[in-house]
Amino acid sequence: MFEDTDIVAVDKPEGLAAIPERCPQAGSLLERLEAERGEKLYIVHRIDKGTSGAILFARNAQAHRFLNRQFEARQVDKAYLALVHGVVGEEGGSNLNVKIRFGSGRMAVDSQRGKPSGTDFQVVER
Questions:
Q1: Among all residues, which ones are annotated catalytic?
Q2: HSE-CB of 52 using CA atoms within 13 angstroms
Q3: How far apart are CA 77 and CA 31, in angstroms?
Q4: What is the pTM of this model?
Q5: How would you classify residue 91: left for phi > 0, otherwise alpha for psi between -120 and 50, otherwise beta?
Q6: DSSP result, 66-107
Q7: Tens digits of per-residue pLDDT, 1-60?
Q8: In contact, 86 and 72? CB cutoff 8 Å
């Protein structure tokens, strides 16, 4: 999708893990890109295995630190488009304003140690 001397942005297909999983035979986007490009890459953020979309890799440690700080400072906005089966009653709104923590490959609500997370949504088409 985009590339310069510091970053590579690619469109991750659904069904492919962003980073190596416990089952090494499955492969990952990181491993595939490093093998294809012949260079070490640093993943900046992840998206779920079952989700497709843009994912960002740094090409050097300095760019990785810079981008990670932007994500940590919540200076990055992410947008998702979802196809929903069922009925969404509202035309839009905010929900899931909870604190989430990650560990052992899992995500959980943790009001004490979690990071703030919020979802704003807007129905695009019915």
A1: 48
A2: 7
A3: 26
A4: 0.72
A5: alpha
A6: HHHHHHHTT-----------S---SSEEEEEEEEEEEETTEE
A7: 999 999 999 999 998 889 888 776 778 999 999 999 999 999 998 888 888 899 999 999
A8: no
* Burial zone of 125 (CB within 10 Å; 0-12 exposed, 13-18 middle, 19+ buried): exposed
Are 50 and 21 a contacting pair, CB within 8 Å? no
Do 6 and 60 meet the contact criterion of CB atoms below 8 Å apart?
yes
- Written as one letter, the residue type at 41 is L
Contact 102, 78 (CB under 8 A): no
pLDDT at 104 over 80: no
| Distance separating alpha carbons of residues 105 and 9, to the nearest angstrom | 23
Q: Which of 67, 58, 14, 51 is nearest to 33 (CA)?
A: 58
Amino acid identity for residue 118 in this structure: G
Would you say the C-alpha torsion 39, 44, 50, 54 has a positive or negative sign? negative
In 3D space, the residue among 67, 57, 79, 64 whose CA is nearest the CA of residue 124 turns out to be: 79
Helix (H, G, I), strand (E, B) or coil at 51: coil
